[in-house]
Amino acid sequence: MGGELSPKMLDLEYDTISGAYTTPIQMQSNNGILVVDDLGRQVIRPDELLNRWIVPLSRGIDFLRLLNGAKFTVPFELKLVTSTNLDPNSLGDDAFLRRLRNKVFVGPITETAFNWILVRTAQARQIEVTAESAQHLRRVCNHFLGELRPYVAVDFCELMLGICRYEGMAPVLEIPMINRVAGVYFVSDGSKAPLEPTSQMHPATQPMAQATPRPQQPAAAPPVGLQHLAGAVGSHGQPGVGWPQEPGRLRSASTYALAW
């Protein structure tokens, strides 16, 4: 669930046409995991949400009420996981945060991880990338955001593809294209100093990502030419361990995962 979560979704909803009730989301999630994304951006306030679930979370049962006033209990057996890119202290007081016992901070990524995401994204979308353009994209990300965030590589590739398809250009992530995408992607109030131009690239620069299909095996080696850009990062962030099928898409470098 995301921003569409509302108070009425936490209780039984009666349909006058069918004469049937729609069960609340926590009942539908029994014996599973209920993920509340972007906590703090819903219509319902975080403290209201916790107050509604505080007894079910502690006792393992939920109390529901029918339209005629009859009240009954149902099992509340689920794992509640929430995520937010807001400051957790702004979502509630100490009593609120104490109820969400496990907290994990997802911070910015390293250059190696950024390269890995860029390579995998370019490979999946058949985009040509050079080592110099990857370095420039990292500079742009650091300039505007002050850190490397994993979603930037994916967003830039997707925006670049839209431009290339519209203008009939080859999908090559070059430095001028990166600057063009940055002009429409980042919001600036003019307080930041202009990004210094990158030094002239060597004319013999070789492409790092060709328009080749993705390997079918999860443990397959990266395509030839991609290895030194990606640093041969494996599925667990270690060299030479094999590559997962898709890059991760964390939306913020300041994401918290909160779980009961």
Describe the structure.
The chain is an alpha/beta fold and 260 residues long. The protein has 2 domains: 7-100, 3-Layer(aba) Sandwich (Rossmann fold); 111-250, no CATH class. Helices cover 33% and strands 16% of the residues. The strands form 4 sheets. The protein has a 4-stranded mixed β-sheet, with no helix packed on it. A two-stranded antiparallel ribbon has the order 1-2. Strands 4-5 form a two-stranded antiparallel sheet. The chain is elongated. Residues 199-228 and 230-253 have low confidence and may be disordered.
In short:
With 260 residues, the chain is α/β, with parallel strands linked by helices. Helices cover 33% and strands 16% of the residues.
Produce the secondary structure layout.
Elements lengths: L12 E3 L4 E3 L2 H4 L3 E5 L9 H14 L1 E5 L5 E5 L2 E7 L9 H6 L2 E5 L4 H14 L3 E2 L1 H15 L4 H18 L4 E2 L1 H11 L41 H4 L24 E5 L1
Parallel strand pairs: 3-6, 8-9
Antiparallel strand pairs: 1-2, 4-5, 6-10, 7-10
Helix pairs in contact: 4-6, 5-7
